[in-house]
Design a protein that fits this description.
17 helices; two-stranded antiparallel ribbon; Nucleotidyltransferase, domain 5; 4 domains; 6-stranded mixed sheet; alpha+beta
Length: about 475
């Protein structure tokens, strides 16, 4: 066979549509389109968005296409609108998912921005509830025991952009004022850096500083230890089905006990709007949510709390009411019980898993938008996409498309290891085969927790089609 060489070819002026090469489409997106079509998703979102458009003029992006592009951002791990628009224009499978023909152009990121600014946050919340209703129709929504946890989202603002709230001066102007106070009349950049590095009270607070570009962001410590401008995202998760019942984006300096009542109230309203008859009976959280007023509020709402206590040397009950004391002791008794320990393990595993999917592999950790309302809109749709992925995995066995390669690799390595061990045992004596059998049995016992979770990497759909990923 001769070596082929690439040569520049002049494209034809007219190409019949029948001759255009099209892909078969991805099985995951094909099934997702079937689920959305069966639920009449396009007519639903068009009815939601119709009051915010005018009659006449150039037709805009169909709402069904826009929300599907936001779903693609989660499934493909894209954190920006530019990345979503480029990926949709580049992939034939995603064009088929969006319903855009090869002769049409895919929406650009600027059009996505206009639509996001046009639609209020209520529309995105209703789309989230619509997806939650699909889970309830398939029997995947329990809603009795909820777990709440929070994480930080990196804002689209740098620490260099902060200014003082009282005077409006930036960081360098603030340092120049400190230098003049110490007798340095005309400080250079090196003098300012040396002064800033040598200060002992080098701290910034949200009460004194604010970002010039994104005033809603707050100075906080990220999960990796860096100090950055960020938001706080809070998930309310159904611990039995692992579905996200409510997602809330708040200010990063807002304490966990202050945002938890709003998350619980939002979760209860979402369950009612989704048509679920479940009643929230228990709430499981970490020790950061332990607060006597919050425990008393949950007791009044007939919600059992399982919140570990913070380590304190002494406790004073002089300024606490009898209701708060009773709620505190009841929570301590439940946490120390067998059910409390089991629910605490569930919360650690299943709540953190939602953040791993939405923030890490779903592209939600970093935002490129300004304002808490814009961040909340896109993050709510990422949580809705997570619920769609959960629906497809648990009902039909279709798993997220980006994890198929990793699951196939893990399965190949497992089969390769078993084949090598069997080939090695076949060439040994009977005594050595017994020893190898004992070693393999011990290894299986040690690897039992990993093998138990293998269904998150390998999935067998009901229609007989083999897929991998989670």
């Amino acid at each position: 066979m001769a070596l082929g060489k690439r040569t520049a070819q002049q494209s034809e002026l007219f190409i019949p549509t029948a001759q255009l090469v099209t892909g078969p489409g991805h099985p995951f997106y094909t099934k997702l389109n079937e689920v959305l079509a069966e639920a009449d998703f396009d007519n639903f979102v068009e009815g939601l968005c119709a009051p915010y458009y005018k009659d006449g003029g150039r037709p805009g992006i169909p709402p069904g296409v826009y929300f599907r592009m936001l779903f693609i951002g989660y499934f493909e791990g894209l954190d920006s609108q530019r990345g979503i628009a480029w990926r949709c224009a580049d992939s034939l499978a995603l064009r088929t998912f969006l319903g855009v023909s090869l002769t049409e152009g895919t929406p650009v990121h600027a059009s996505m921005t206009i639509i996001r600014q046009r639609l209020p946050e209520l529309v995105f919340d209703k789309v989230f509830v619509f997806v939650l209703k699909l889970l309830d129709e398939k029997g995947l929504l329990r809603g009795k025991t909820l777990g709440i946890d929070a994480t930080t989202l990196e804002a689209n603002a740098a620490m260099k952009s902060i200014v003082r709230r009282d005077t409006g001066e930036d960081w360098k102007e603030y340092l120049r004022g400190l230098a003049k106070a110490e007798g340095i009349e005309n400080p250079t950049e090196e003098d300012l850096r040396r002064l800033d590095k040598g200060r002992k009270d080098k701290k910034v607070s949200n009460q004194e500083w604010v970002s010039r570009t994104d005033p809603d962001s707050r100075i906080t410590k990220m999960k990796d230890g860096r100090t950055h401008l960020a938001y706080k995202a809070e998930h309310t998760v159904d611990l039995e089905s692992e579905a996200i019942v409510a997602s809330l984006v708040t200010l990063a300096d807002k304490a966990d006990p202050q945002s938890a009542p709003l998350s619980l109230t939002l979760a209860e309203s979402n369950l009612v709007l989704a048509g679920s008859e479940a009643t929230v009976n228990a709430a499981v959280m970490d020790k950061g949510y332990h607060d006597n007023e919050f425990l008393s509020w949950c007791a009044k709402q007939a919600i059992r709390t399982y919140i570990p206590e913070r380590k304190q040397k002494t406790r004073r009950w002089t300024d606490k009411t009898a209701e708060q004391q009773a709620a505190f002791r009841a929570n301590r008794r439940r946490v120390r019980g067998r059910t409390g320990r089991r629910l605490s393990r569930w919360r650690s595993e299943r709540c953190e898993r939602t953040f791993a999917h939405v923030c890490e592999t779903g592209g939600g950790r970093r935002t490129y938008l300004w304002g808490i309302h814009n961040v909340s809109k896109t993050y709510t749709l990422k949580c809705a996409a997570y619920n769609l992925g959960l629906l497809l995995r648990k009902v039909w066995g279709y798993c997220k498309p980006r994890n198929g390669q990793a699951g196939a690799g893990a399965l190949f390595l497992a089969f390769l290891a078993c084949w090598m061990v069997l080939a090695l045992i076949a060439n040994q004596s009977l005594k050595q085969q017994l020893l190898w059998s004992l070693c393999i049995g011990g290894l299986i016992l040690v690897m039992a927790p990993t093998v138990k979770r293998l269904h998150h990497l390998i999935s067998f759909p009901k229609n007989g089609r083999f897929l991998t990923g989670c």
